User: Fold Enoyl reductase (ER) domain-containing protein from Chlorella ohadii.
Amino acid sequence: MRAVRMEKRGPAKEALVFHANHRLPQRQPNQVLLAAAATSVAAGDWKMRSGFAPIPLKLPKILGEDVSGVVLEAPTGSKFKRGDRVFGCTGQVLKSGEPFGTNAEFVAAEESVLALIPAGVSFQEAASVPVSGLTAWQALAPAMPLAGKRVLVHGGAGGVGSFAIQAGWAIAKAQGAHVTTTCSGRNVEFVTRQLGADVAIDYTQAPWEASPGATAAPFDHIVDTIGGSYERASLRLLSKGGSFANLGASGPGVDKVSVWGIVGMLLGAMWRSMLGAVRLGPPYKFVMQDCTASKGLDQIAALMAEGKVKVHLDKVFTLEELAAAHEYAEQGHVRGKVAVTICDDPAARWLAAS
Ligand SMILES: NC(=O)c1ccc[n+]([C@@H]2O[C@H](COP(=O)([O-])OP(=O)(O)OC[C@H]3O[C@@H](n4cnc5c(N)ncnc54)[C@H](OP(=O)(O)O)[C@@H]3O)[C@@H](O)[C@H]2O)c1
Assistant:
């Protein structure tokens, strides 16, 4: 199969190698085998590849967690059948010994991580949802129901942020929820007009935490996709009883983290979670994204089917261009998502042939 494999850490063009004839993944009895149509580049992908964080990895390894495609084989009694259009997040990121990710023509994935692609959604759009959409949902979950609440989403123009704003909007807007977000000036129109945020704070103009959008009234829930100084400032803006979701981001402008940096961040998060649990601090959740479809993907898919959540594709690359897609995402200013086409029509290409 065609696949792009990470063969060492470092710059994308050196680390990511295209193979025209890679060996296939073996489907396990509980897994679905997909002919992949598309994948996406999530922040975790380029961070693993670049050496941004010292995450243990057994190399070589096919990176990628997001996938969309058609079912070729499914377990006995599966809810999916051959030919179904599905999408999901395989969850291979933390399995350091797993050689197969989704930057490849064939993907084996647990049935529990997959969902049917809503009608009218393209393969590229679908492949852009799972990692970011699940994370956004799981970061909003502690504050649900969101009715009547003031929510602050940091980094609203990015992958996770764009889904968090839309989901927050879709599930609570009718009941009067209010969504504020931080972004650069070029994305103010995007986050307000296209995603539905009520207030956009341009973080490039002045300290965001001192702007009227941040100080007008306390927030009932904060989704922090930026971390570091953003977390410290955000915690001061929470209402009494307000909650906080930490996504493990390292702070604005940080381009590398050490083992000790990660340990410090995790200990800090554990400490704050404990304080929250015993009510000596705000309820605090460290989000480690769970790929199970019922933990957010099914819900986002339902909102997509109703047209309430849309995928905003910033750029679409081909599998052969994966290194360029990483380089683009790594700049840290993706608007929406970066998708990667693997095969335009996997049903025509593989269902008839097998
Ligand atoms: N814990 C988990 O399970 C989990 C899962 C997924 C992601 N994450 C983490 O969550 C973070 C966000 O991921 P992502 O996929 O959304 O990344 P992304 O798509 O690359 O986000 C980029 C966005 O961040 C915005 N941004 C950059 N600097 C900013 C700042 N100082 N203030 C406000 N916005 C800023 C950019 O907007 P402008 O261009 O307007 O600056 C851009 O739209 C990453 O650190 C990622 O590793 C964690």
Q: What stands out?
A: The chain has two domains: 3-129+311-351, 132-286. The pocket of NAP is lined by residues 42-44, 47, 131-132, 135, 154-155, 157-161, 182-184, 187, 203, 225-226, 247-249, 252, 287-289, 329, 332-335 (CB under 6 Å).
